[in-house]
Structure formats: C-alpha cells, structure tokens
Amino acid sequence: MENCHCRRRPRSEEEKKLLINRLRRIEGQIRGIRGMIEEDAYCIDIVTQTAAVSSALGSFNQKLLAAHIRTCVTEDIESGGSEKTEELIEVLGRLFR
User: Would 43 be classed as within a structural domain?
Assistant: First the structure.
C-alpha cells in the first residue's frame, strides 16, 4: 500500500472547514480530559468523557469515509478500477476490529 502522505485529494474549502472544526472540538475534549486527570476527577467521569471523544472520532471517520466513497471510490469504479474499493474494504476491517 502506498504511503498515504504521498497521495492527495483536493477538498473544497467548506469540506476542510467542517472537518477542521470537528477536529478542533475533539482537541478541546482531549484537553478537557487532561485537565480532569490533573484535577483528580472521578474515574467514571473521565471514562464518560473518553467515550464522548471516541464517539466524536467515529463521527469524524464516518464523514471522511462518506466523502471518500462519493469521490475517490466512485471515480475509481467509474474508470473501471477496483483499487479504491479494496482499499476501503481493508480500512473498514481495521476500523471494526
């Protein structure tokens, strides 16, 4: 598999903005969890927040994969290829382990 840092897909400014905003919220949640640890917060409260982060990351992945399917995978199929479909199947396998 190619190094993903070499591959690129142009995104609209709107798509970038939405994805970056989601990541900023997740970063804020992570900083909040760090603060909870520093302040000796109750374990279950911390776990509740980490579950929220996991959910937020899942939602981020869902949005990103939906865009990938609509663009990269669709273009690959329309051109007669199957590489992007196989790549998607592989990444979904890793996500659902």
Answer: yes
Percent of the chain with pLDDT over 70: 94
CA–CA distance, 19 with 61 (Å, rounded to integer): 10
- Which domain covers residue 45, as residue numbers? 14-95
C-alpha 5/C-alpha 42 separation (Å) is 39
pTM of the model: 0.82
Q: Which amino acid is at 60?
A: F
Domain count, the chain: 1
Instruction: Read off the CATH number of the domain in which 59 is found.
Output: 1.20.58.1000
Q: How far apart are CA 10 and CA 50, in angstroms?
A: 32
DSSP result, 14-67:
HHHHHHHHHHHHHHHHHHHHHHHHHTT--HHHHHHHHHHHHHHHHHHHHHHHHH
